Every structure is written in structure tokens, then in C-alpha cells.
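[Discussion] Sanity-checking designs against the backbone

I'm trying to build intuition for which residues belong where. Below is a C-alpha cell string of 367 positions. I'd appreciate it if someone posts a full sequence so I can compare it with mine line by line.
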């Protein structure tokens, strides 16, 4: 590992600390180095707060360090426009930093190379592309939001070793262990919203809240093309904990729409799609609201629709050491029958993690 890579790796570690607090802004870390020693570092800690570069400069100054001639390592191109905070490029120039090493260009149209240009015009040496692949993976959700206008879609389910999410009676509590369930609450806390279908609401009457010890509450998003869920379900009775959005078709029953609206839900009417609302149109709307992460938790028809339409960016599968068996047991997706295995939905390069007695498989479907 080169010196540039060593310090950039530290900046990446710092950037990750912002997950769940900075969205829809990017996670960014910055490290300032002089004579091969770190003299300042920082990361973007919260949406609307100082950017990583400003935090790093303040950190160095607090220690009395001389920034003149120092090198700054930053995971993303410094901004060059006035947003919620002043441009970072100007702060870097005024600090006397002589070299900036960045992992990748900012895909935001307000920056998009303009930050690098401003630094070079000020006489600062700019090096780009150091650990670029790592940065692209770190900022994949941010990049998708900025370039496609849609949130990063995480599809998640828990299943038995033989691939079942419920028995033939519909019993599913609990397939996964307590440690896995704690992880799910952690994941919810990092997402803008949690999505399920109306069938899951009717069958399980879930809360879909983050019941962990940290993080915020996701918005609960229900796909209900016919507005069949009850205003008395637990989701509707917990509006004070977190908002509920119900996505339905434009021709949904008006009486049901009024009842759910009066109960406190936001009812979002969209064009119809296969089996309910048009999911791509839904994602466009969530993108306009600057959602960065959407967690899709089921049921199997919802999983199937997102997967079949190529709308899933990341797949999380918790596998429990249990065998449900039985021809009537329920699987996680509801595919049409295929004739030959070569037509199966194929996945590759899993990340594998043991959580208690369970195994978590993570697949990234989108670059």
C-alpha cells in the first residue's frame, strides 16, 4: 500500500462514521498530512453540518498545526458551491494546503469536476482516483440518487436453511435469531424508509419501527394498490412514532383513501403497475424527496416485483439453522416456474457474515 493509499484508507474509515446521519449528503472523510504525519482529520457528521474538509482543517488548527504546504486526503471531490455550508474549496485554498488527493469526482451536477478545477486554478496540486473503487462502493447510494434520482433499494428477508420464510400455516416468528433481529433494527435506523406490501400488514400486523438503542425512525411505506389495510392496524396506531405513507393506484377507492388519510397516513396515488403501483414511478417520487436508502422487507410478492423489474441494488438474506420442510411452506420469492436451471436468477460474489447462529449473505446487484 502506497503512502497515498494509507492515508486515503484512514479517510474512508472516517467517512463511514457518517452513515445514517448525513443523507442525502454523501459520507465524506478527510485527513491532513504534513511530513508523513496526520495533523488533522474529520468527517461529515450530520446533514447541514460542516463538511469533512472543514472539520479536518479545524482539527489541525485546534492542535496549533501549520497547514501551509500540507496534503489533504479526501474521499470525494471538495464542493465549490454555496449550499447549506460555504464552499470547501475556498477553505482549502485559504488554509494554504498545497496538495489535495481525492478518491473520486462528485457526481452532483453542482460540483462535477468544478471543485478540482477551482483548486488547480489556485495553484494546488490535485491527484484523483486513489482508492476510487472503494469510494464508489462507499458512495453507491449517493451516486445513484444524484445520477438516477432514485434511492438505493435493499431487499431483505430471513429464511430457513431450506429456503422457507414461513410454514404452510404462515408461521414465521421467529425464523432468525435475536442477534439477527437486532441487526435488522440497526439497518432500519440507517434507512429513510421501510417498505412492505399490504398482504404483510394484514398477515403480520407489523410495526416496522427501529426498536434498537440508536438511530432514527424510518418512514413506513406500504404498497396497497386497493387500499385494503385497516385504519386500526398497528402501523396506523403508531403514527406518533413514525410517519406512514401508503402508495396506491390512482383509481383506488375514494372512501378508503379518506379513512386512511384521516387516520394520519399520507396516501400517495401513483400510476398502476404489475400487481399494484408502478414501482419505478414510486422510486422516482422517493428520489424527489431525497430518500437515499429504501429497505424492502416483503412479502414475497413485493420481493419478486422489485427483483423481476431490476430495481434491487442490494440483497440481504439471513439464513437460520432451521429446516421448515413441507410442500406447503412458503419461499421468499414468487417466481413463475422455470423449465431449466440456466434461466434461474443468478447471483455472485456474496459477502458472508455469521451473526449468532445465523448466516447473513449480502449481494450487491448494482455497480
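Best answer:
Here's mine. Compare freely.
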Amino acid at each position: 500500500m502506497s503512502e497515498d493509499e494509507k492515508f486515503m484508507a484512514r479517510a474512508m474509515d472516517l467517512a463511514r462514521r457518517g452513515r445514517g446521519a448525513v443523507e442525502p449528503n454523501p459520507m465524506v472523510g478527510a485527513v491532513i498530512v504534513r511530513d508523513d504525519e496526520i495533523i488533522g482529520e474529520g468527517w461529515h457528521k450530520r446533514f447541514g453540518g460542516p463538511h469533512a474538509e472543514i472539520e479536518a482543517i479545524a482539527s489541525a488548527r485546534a492542535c496549533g498545526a501549520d497547514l501551509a504546504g500540507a496534503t489533504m486526503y479526501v474521499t470525494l471531490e471538495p464542493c465549490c458551491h454555496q449550499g447549506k455550508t460555504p464552499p470547501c474549496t475556498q477553505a482549502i485554498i485559504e488554509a494554504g494546503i498545497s496538495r489535495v488527493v481525492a478518491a473520486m469526482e462528485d457526481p452532483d451536477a453542482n460540483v462535477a469536476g468544478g471543485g478540482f478545477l477551482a483548486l488547480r486554478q489556485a495553484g494546488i496540486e490535485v491527484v484523483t482516483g486513489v482508492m476510487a473503487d472503494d469510494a464508489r462502493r462507499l458512495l453507491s447510494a449517493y451516486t445513484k440518487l444524484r445520477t438516477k434520482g432514485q434511492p438505493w433499494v435493499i431487499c431483505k428477508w430471513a429464511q430457513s436453511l431450506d429456503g422457507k420464510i414461513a410454514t404452510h400455516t404462515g408461521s414465521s416468528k421467529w425464523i432468525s435469531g435475536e442477534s439477527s433481529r437486532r441487526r435488522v433494527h440497526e439497518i432500519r435506523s440507517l434507512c429513510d424508509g421501510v417498505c412492505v406490501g399490504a398482504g404483510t400488514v394484514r398477515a403480520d400486523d407489523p410495526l416496522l419501527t427501529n426498536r434498537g438503542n440508536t438511530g432514527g425512525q424510518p418512514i413506513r411505506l406500504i404498497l396497497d394498490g386497493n387500499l385494503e389495510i385497516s385504519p386500526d392496524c398497528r402501523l396506523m396506531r403508531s403514527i406518533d412514532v413514525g410517519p406512514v405513507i401508503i402508495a396506491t393506484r390512482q383509481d383506488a377507492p375514494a372512501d378508503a383513501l379518506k379513512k386512511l388519510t384521516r387516520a394520519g397516513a399520507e396516501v400517495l396515488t401513483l400510476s398502476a403497475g404489475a400487481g399494484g403501483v408502478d414501482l419505478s414511478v414510486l422510486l422516482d417520487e422517493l428520489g424527489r424527496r431525497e430518500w437515499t436508502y429504501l429497505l424492502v422487507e416483503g412479502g414475497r410478492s413485493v420481493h419478486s416485483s422489485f427483483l423481476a423489474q431490476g430495481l434491487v441494488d442490494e440483497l440481504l438474506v439471513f439464513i437460520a439453522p432451521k429446516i421448515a420442510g413441507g410442500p406447503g411452506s412458503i419461499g421468499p420469492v414468487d417466481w413463475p416456474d422455470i423449465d431449466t436451471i440456466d434461466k434461474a436468477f443468478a447471483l455472485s460474489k456474496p459477502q458472508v457474515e455469521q451473526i449468532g447462529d445465523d448466516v447473513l449473505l449480502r449481494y450487491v446487484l448494482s455497480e
